[in-house]
Amino acid sequence: MLNHFLDKRRNVFLLAAFAIFMESLTSPCLKIGSQRYETFSAGYFFWFGLAVAILAIYAVCWQLILERLPLTTAYLRRGFSYILLFVWSALLFHETITPKQILGIAVISLGMVISVSDEHGKKPEQKPEET
């Protein structure tokens, strides 16, 4: 059933977006655990464990993605995690946003747009037939 779902290229990109979203949540979990709880307390281990669980989900999703997309295509999408971390830091931790950070996020975004525009018009790679 999962293979049938991932046969469509659009669904692979949706899975990539989900995986990157999940991966971006690990740093906020770790920061919450370290800021609000004493080291080695139950709360600390809860947030640390949550981050590890999220990374496990991310790792499985990423392996499914790498089976279906070229590494360069998949990896270029990871720039979204930096953008999401920027958002999490502002929303959850009320951290100061500087013009240099905004410029950096703009450069990352522009790079992703350029890489995606290069892929339009290309036919998906065919897997070599097994002999």
How would you characterize this protein structure?
It is a single chain. 76% of the residues lie in helices and 0% in strands. It has one domain. The chain has 131 residues and is mainly alpha-helical. The chain has 7 helices and no strands. It has helices at 2-5, 9-24, 26-36, 42-68, 71-76, 79-93, 99-119.
Relevant terms:
mainly alpha, 0% strand, 7 helices
Explain briefly what this protein structure is:
This protein is mainly alpha-helical and 131 residues long. It has helices at 2-5, 9-24, 26-36, 42-68, 71-76, 79-93, 99-119. The protein has one domain (2-119).
What structural class do you assign from the helix and strand content? mainly alpha
Share of residues in strands? under 5%
Whole-number total of structural domains: 1
Which whole number gives the mean pLDDT? 86
User: Nearest-angstrom radius of gyration?
Assistant: 18 Å
Considering DSSP H and I runs of 4 or more, what fraction of the residues is helical? over 70%
User: Count of DSSP helices?
Assistant: 7
Biggest sheet layout: none
Low-pLDDT sequence parts: none
Number of strands: 0
Shape: flat
Order of helices and strands: HHHHHHH
Distance between the termini: 25 Å
